[in-house]
Design brief:
Distance between the termini of chain B: 41 Å
Distance between the termini of chain A: 24 Å
Order of helices and strands of chain A: HHHHHHHHHHHHHHH
Strand content of chain A: under 5%
Chains: A mainly alpha (about 300), B alpha/beta (about 425), C mainly alpha (about 270)
Number of domains of chain A: 2
CATH topology of the largest domain in chain B: D-Maltodextrin-Binding Protein, domain 2
Radius of gyration of chain A: 25 Å
Number of helices of chain A: 15
Order of helices and strands of chain B: HEHEHEHHHEEHHHHHEHHEEHHHHH
CATH architecture of the largest domain in chain A: Orthogonal Bundle
Helix content of chain A: 55-70%
Number of helices of chain B: 18
Shape of chain A: flat
Number of strands of chain B: 8
Structural class of chain A: mainly alpha
Shape of chain B: globular
Number of strands of chain A: 0
Strand content of chain B: 5-15%
Helix content of chain B: 40-55%
CATH class of the largest domain in chain A: Mainly Alpha
CATH architecture of the largest domain in chain B: 3-Layer(aba) Sandwich
Largest sheet of chain B: 5 strands, mixed
Radius of gyration of chain B: 24 Å
CATH class of the largest domain in chain B: Alpha Beta
Oligomer: heterotrimer
CATH topology of the largest domain in chain A: MetI-like fold
C-alpha cells in the first residue's frame, strides 16, 4: 500500500508516449520493446548463459567422449572428438539405473505432494487465520528451519528405526515431508495477497476452508510451483539421509546408485559424467515445464486488456 | 508456562535416554561358532557391486550349497558415506552380520564390543592367512583379532618419463632412496622454473612410518612420531615446498586431486597400484606411453600395504553361519579367484606363490603385479589402526603449518602428537 | 515434524552436555564441552569464516538474483530456454559443480590461463586461504542465483503492472523505476531472501569442503562451523557430545541472525 502512495503523485503528470512506433517484439503487456533494448537484453542473457551453463556443457562433453580420448589434457579440450552415447549405455549396464530412478521418482513425487499440501495449509494458517500464538507458531517454523541437520542425523535414524521405518521409502520421505522453508514461502505468498478480495468472500459467508480453496490457493500458483520444484529437487538430490535410512540396494535412490559409478578400483570420469547428466536431466525438464507458472500470480488476476 | 515446559523437558529426557543406551556393550549373540551352520545372514560389502556382481553371487550360491539351510543376503554400500552408514547402523543396532571393513573401522567397533573376537571364535583359521595380514586387525591395548583379513593392495611409484627427461634427469634411473628423491625433485622444480612439482601430497602418517619413524609406543597408549626422524622428514618436505617441488596445492590436495594432477602432467610422480595402469590407459592415453614404474621408496625395506577385512558382528543371531561365511569369502580359493578379477592381492598364506603372481608375460600389468606380490610378503600396514579420521586431520593441519613456515617442524609435530594423544584418550 | 525435527534436536541439546562418542554412551559433563569450545582455536577459525561467508555472500544473493529475475521476466523469444539454462547450476549436483570449479580455478586451469594471457599472471585461487574462501563464495553465489531468481520471479508476478506503467509513462528511467517501484514491491521477498541466504551461508559446508578439501584449506584455515561439526562428530570415532555443543552454538547464532534480519525489516515497516 505504501507503494501505491509513492507512485500516485507521479501519475498526475502524464507525458506523451515515448516508444517509437515500430514493428517488432512486444512484451507480455503488448508493449513494443525497443530494438536496442532487446539487443542489450539478449547480450546480457547470453553473458549470464555462458557463466551458468558453461561448466555444465563441459560435463556433457565429457560424457560424450569416446574411450580413446584424453579427458585430462591440459588445457582441457571442450569438444569430444568422436561423440558417442556409449557411456550412457554403459551406465545402464553397470547399475540398474532405471530402478534407482523409479525409486527416486517415488520419493520425489511423494515429497512434492506432501510439501505442496502441507505447506499450503500451514502457510495459510500462519498468514490468514487469527488465533492465539500465531507469532509463536511462525517462530517455531523459522527455528525448525535453523536446526542443523548434520548434528541430528543419527538421532533421526534411531527414531526411524524405533518406528520400524528404516529401510523403507516412507522413512526417506518423512523427515522432509513438510519443509519449514516451504511453509514460510507459502506464508509470504498468502500475506502478499490483497486482503480485500477474501474479505468480500467472507462477507458472502464463505468459511475459511472455502476462501482458502477458491480464492487464496489459485492466486499463489506461482509460489506453489516454486515449492513443488524445490521439494522435488530436495528429495531428488539428497544423498546422506537416504543412504543412512536404506539398507537394501533394491530400494536405493538415484543419487546413491550413481555413487556406485565411483568404483572402488577404477574411476571412469566419462561414466560419472554420463551418470550426472542422467540425474540432472529430469530436473531441468521439470523446471522447463513448470517455469511458466512462476509468472502467474495475483497480477494475472487483475486482468486488464 | 513453567510447568508444561518442565514436563516437556522431562518427557524429552525420558525419550532420549533409551537412545543413549543403544551404544552400550550389552551382550548380544553368542561367541561360540561351533554350532550348526544355518539360518539367514546379511553380508555387506563396500562398493563392489557394480563391477563384481557375478563374482559375489557365485560365492553366495556355492556357500548356500555347501551349507544347506543357510541363506545369505548380500547388500553393497556405495563408496561415499560408508563410515557414516556404519556409524548409524552401529548406533541403531542394525549392523549386518558380516561386514566388509578397513582396519580403522574395526578398531572403534571392537572397542564398542560390536566385533567378534576371532581368536576366541575362529582361532583355528589363523594359520590360513599371512601373519602380517592377520595381525592387522589386532588393536593395541586390546587382546584379540577382530576381522578376517581379505584383500591386500600395494603398489609402485609411477613417474612421468618425459618430465624427467625435460629436467635433464635420466628417465631410466628413477630415485630409489629418499635422498635421491629429494634432490631430483629439487632439480625438476629448478629446471621447470617451479612449473613441475614431483610430489603432490603432504606427508601422511604412513609416510612417516615408511621413512622409519616410530609412530606409537608399544602399548598403543601414545604417539611418538615427533622424534628426530619425524622432524627430519618434515624439514625435508618444507624445503621441497619452498622450492615448489611439492605442489603448491598440496596443502589442500586429496588423493583424487593429486591423481588428476599427475594425469595432466603437472606433477611428476604419484604413488599408485596395478589398478591405476588400466586407469591411465583409459583416462590419459597420451600420458600412458610416458609412464615409468619404480618401487615404493622406503627407509625400512618394508613397503606399505592396505588391508581390507571381513568382520563378524558380535550381536549376530547366527554366529556359526556368520563366522563360516566370513571365513568362506576370505579363504584361499575365493581370494585367489577374486584376485584374478581385479588387480588386488590375496591375504591367504601361500597364495602369493601362485604362478599368477610369479611368472612374467611381458606386459606392464604383470610386471607390476609380480613386483607387488613379492614386496607384500613382508609389507606392513603403517597406519596405526587407532589413527582416526580426526587424528589424520590434526596431523595434516600441523604439517601444513610447518610447511607454510608458521611453525617449526618440531613444534608442529609436538602439537600434532599432543592433539592425537588427547583424541586417543577421548576415544576411550 | 515434532518427531523428526524436535526430538532429534532435543537429544542434540542434551548430548551437548555429555561426552558421548558415536559408539560409547556419554556421561553428563556439565558445561565442559562449551568451555572447551572457547579454548578451541579451530572453533574461532570456524566462527570467523562462517561470519565472513555471510557478509560476503548475502548482499550478492539479495541483489543479483533480483536483477536476473527482471532480466528474464519479459517474454521475449527464447526466454524459456534462458530461464531454464539459468536454473541449471541450481540443479547440478554440488559435487560436480565443485569438481568443475576446481578444474577452472586450478593453477593450470582455464581462469589462470586467461589471466596469464592478459598479463596478470597466475593467481593461487586454490592454495591461498583467503582466495579459497572467496572462490567458495563465488560458487555459492553462482549456484544460488537461479534459486533465488525463482523466488523473486514468483514475487514479481504479484507486482501490479499498473505501477510500472505509471512510472514509465512518467518517464522514470530504468534505474528509478527499479528503486521506486520494484524494490518497494518485493521488499518483503528481499527480506526473506536475506534471511534464507544468511542462514544458508552461515551453515555453509559443501562449497568450502569441495574447494578447500576435507581439512578446510591449508592448515584448516578455511574451516567453517558446520565443517567442524561434521569433522568432530561423524564417523565411528566421532565425539558426538562435543559436536552437539557446536551444533547448539550454530543454532543459537542462526536464530540471532534471523531475528536481526527480521528486526531490520520491522523497523522499516514502522
Amino acid at each position: 500500500m505504501s507503494v501505491l502512495e509513492k507512485v500516485r503523485p507521479v501519475e498526475r503528470r502524464p507525458e506523451t508516449e515515448r516508444h517509437p512506433r515500430r514493428r517488432g517484439v512486444t512484451d507480455e503487456h503488448g508493449r513494443r520493446i525497443r530494438a536496442w533494448e532487446l539487443a542489450l537484453r539478449y547480450l546480457l542473457l547470453l553473458g549470464v548463459l555462458a557463466l551458468t551453463v558453461g561448466p555444465f556443457l563441459w560435463q556433457l562433453s565429457t560424457s560424450l567422449k569416446g574411450p580413446t580420448e584424453d579427458i585430462f589434457s591440459s588445457p582441457p579440450k571442450f569438444l569430444p572428438g568422436s561423440p558417442s552415447l556409449h557411456n550412457y549405455e554403459r551406465v545402464a549396464d553397470t547399475i540398474p539405473v532405471w530402478d534407482f530412478a523409479l525409486n527416486s521418482l517415488k520419493v520425489a513425487g511423494a515429497n512434492v505432494v506432501t510439501n505442496c499440501v502441507g505447506s499450503a495449509l500451514a502457510g495459510y494458517a500462519l498468514a490468514r487465520l487469527r488465533y492465539r500464538g500465531r507469532r509463536v507458531a511462525t517462530l517455531v517454523f523459522i527455528l525448525a528451519m535453523l536446526v542443523p541437520v548434520e548434528g541430528i542425523i543419527i538421532a533421526q535414524f534411531t527414531t526411524m528405526r524405533e518406528l520400524g521405518l528404516n529401510n523403507t521409502l516412507i522413512g526417506v520421505v518423512l523427515p522432509g515431508c513438510v519443509g519449514a522453508m516451504n511453509v514460510l514461502l507459502m506464508r509470504n505468498a498468502f500475506l502478499g495477497l490483497p486482503y480485500e478480495i477474501e474479505e468480500a468472500a467472507f462477507v458472502d459467508g464463505a468459511n475459511a476452508w472455502q476462501r482458502f480453496l477458491r480464492i487464496a490457493l489459485p492466486s499463489v500458483r506461482g509460489t506453489l510451483a516454486v515449492v513443488a520444484i524445490f521439494a522435488f529437487m530436495g528429495a531428488w538430490d539428497d544423498f546422506l539421509w537416504p543412504l543412512i535410512v536404506l539398507s537394501d540396494p533394491s530400494k536405493f535412490t538415484l543419487t546413491i546408485g550413481l555413487n556406485y559409478l565411483h568404483g572402488t578400483f577404477a574411476n571412469d570420469e566419462r561414466l560419472v559424467a554420463a551418470g550426472t547428466i542422467i540425474a540432472v536431466a529430469p530436473l531441468i525438464a521439470l523446471f522447463a515445464c513448470l517455469q511458466r507458472y512462476f509468472f502467474r500470480g495475483v497480477g494475472e488476476g487483475a486482468v486488464k486488456g | 508456562m513453567s510447568i508444561p515446559r518442565r514436563a516437556l523437558v522431562t518427557a524429552a529426557v525420558a525419550l532420549v535416554l533409551p537412545l543413549s543406551a543403544c551404544g552400550s556393550g550389552d551382550s548380544g549373540g553368542s561367541t561360540d561358532a561351533s554350532g550348526k551352520v544355518e539360518g539367514d545372514i546379511t553380508f555387506q560389502t563396500w562398493n563392489l557391486r557394480a563391477n563384481f556382481k557375478a563374482y559375489f553371487e557365485g560365492v553366495i550360491v556355492d556357500f548356500e550349497k555347501k551349507y544347506p539351510g543357510t541363506h545369505v543376503k548380500w547388500i553393497d554400500q556405495p563408496a561415499e558415506g560408508y563410515a557414516d552408514k556404519i556409524s548409524a547402523d552401529a548406533a541403531g543396532g542394525t549392523l549386518p552380520d558380516v561386514v566388509n571393513v578397513s582396519p580403522d573401522l574395526v578398531a572403534p567397533l571392537a572397542k564398542a564390543g560390536l566385533a567378534l573376537d576371532l581368536d576366541k571364535s575362529a582361532a583355528q583359521y589363523e594359520k590360513e592367512y599371512l601373519a602380517g595380514a592377520w595381525a592387522s586387525h589386532r588393536i593395541p591395548g586390546m587382546t584379540g583379532t577382530y576381522a578376517f583379513p581379505w584383500y591386500l593392495n600395494t603398489g609402485p611409484l609411477f613417474y612421468n618419463k618425459s618430465l624427467f627427461k625435460e629436467a635433464g634427469l635420466d628417465a631410466a634411473q628413477p630415485p630409489t632412496t629418499y635422498d635421491e628423491l629429494f634432490s631430483e625433485a629439487l632439480q625438476l622444480a629448478k629446471k621447470s622454473d617451479g612449473k613441475v612439482a614431483t610430489l603432490a601430497n603432504v606427508p601422511t602418517v604412513e609416510d612417516f612410518g615408511r621413512y622409519g619413524v616410530e609412530l606409537m609406543n608399544k602399548a598403543g597408549t601414545a604417539f611418538s612420531f615427533n622424534d628426530a626422524k619425524g622432524i627430519e622428514l618434515l624439514t625435508k618436505y618444507k624445503e621441497l615446498y619452498d622450492a615448489k617441488a611439492l605442489d603448491a596445492q598440496a596443502l589442500t590436495a586429496t588423493p583424487e586431486s593429486s591423481g588428476r594432477k599427475f594425469l595432466t602432467g603437472a606433477v611428476a610422480m604419484n604413488p599408485g597400484s596395478a589398478l591405476d595402469l588400466g586407469n591411465f590407459k583409459k583416462q590419459a592415453p597420451n600420458l600412458y606411453r610416458n609412464i615409468g614404474i619404480t618401487d615404493q621408496i622406503t627407509s625400512t625395506g618394508k613397503v606399505n600395504m592396505y588391508v581390507m577385512g571381513v568382520m563378524v558382528n558380535s550381536r549376530t543371531k547366527q554366529t556359526p553361519a556368520a563366522v563360516a561365511f566370513a571365513h568362506y569369502v576370505t579363504d584361499a580359493r575365493n581370494q585367489m579367484s577374486f584376485a584374478k578379477k581385479v588387480a588386488i592381492f590375496p591375504s591367504t598364506a601361500g597364495s602369493l606363490g601362485d604362478p599368477y603372481f610369479t611368472q612374467e608375460d611381458g606386459t606392464d600389468e604383470t610386471r607390476v603385479r609380480i613386483a607387488a606380490a613379492k614386496s607384500l610378503k613382508n609389507a606392513v600396514n603403517y597406519t596405526p589402526v587407532l589413527f582416526s579420521e580426526q587424528m589424520k586431520t590434526a596431523l595434516r593441519n600441523e604439517v601444513a603449518k610447518a610447511l607454510q613456515g608458521k611453525e617449526s617442524p618440531k613444534t608442529a609435530l609436538d602439537n600434532a602428537v599432543k592433539t592425537c594423544d588427547t583424541l586417543l584418550r577421548q576415544q576411550g | 515434524m515434532a518427531v523428526f525435527i524436535l526430538y532429534p534436536f532435543v537429544s542434540t541439546v542434551i548430548n551437548s552436555f555429555t561426552d558421548r562418542r558415536t559408539l560409547i554412551p556419554g556421561e553428563f559433563v556439565g558445561l565442559a564441552n562449551f568451555r572447551e569450545l572457547l579454548h578451541d582455536e579451530m572453533f574461532w577459525t570456524g566462527l570467523r569464516n562462517s561470519t565472513l561467508y555471510v557478509l560476503g555472500v548475502v548482499p550478492a544473493l539479495v541483489l543479483l538474483p533480483l536483477l536476473l529475475a527482471l532480466l528474464v521476466q519479459k517474454n521475449i523469444p527464447g526466454i524459456t530456454f534462458f530461464r531454464s539454462a539459468f536454473y541449471t547450476p541450481v540443479v547440478a549436483s554440488i559435487v560436480v559443480v565443485g569438481l568443475i570449479w576446481v578444474w577452472l580455478l586450478d593453477e593450470r586451469g582455464l581462469v589462470n590461463s586467461l589471466l596469464e594471457a592478459i598479463g596478470i599472471g597466475k593467481v593461487g585461487f586454490l592454495s591461498d586461504q583467503w582466495l579459497l574462501l572467496l572462490s567458495a563464495m563465488a560458487v555459492t553465489v553462482w549456484k544460488g542465483l537461479g534459486y533465488y531468481m525463482i523466488i523473486y520471479l514468483a514475487a514479481l508476478a504479484n507486482v501490479p503492472r499498473e505501477l510500472h506503467e505509471a512510472a514509465s509513462v512518467d518517464g522514470a528511467g530504468a534505474v528509478r523505476r527499479f528503486l521506486t517501484v520494484t524494490v518497494p514491491a518485493v521488499r518483503s521477498t528481499m527480506v526473506l531472501v536475506a534471511a534464507l541466504s544468511s542462514v544458508a551461508a552461515f551453515k555453509v559446508f559443501s562449497e568450502v569442503y569441495l574447494m578447500a578439501g576435507p581439512d578446510g584449506g591449508p592448515a584448516g584455515e578455511d574451516t567453517t562451523l558446520v565443517m567442524l561439526v561434521q569433522r568432530t562428530g561423524t564417523g565411528l570415532t566421532g565425539r558426538v557430545g562435543y559436536a552437539s555443543a557446536l551444533s547448539v552454538v550454530v543454532f543459537v547464532v542462526t536464530v540471532a541472525l534471523m531475528l536481526l534480519v527480521l528486526r531490520a525489516d520491522r523497523k522499516e515497516d514502522a
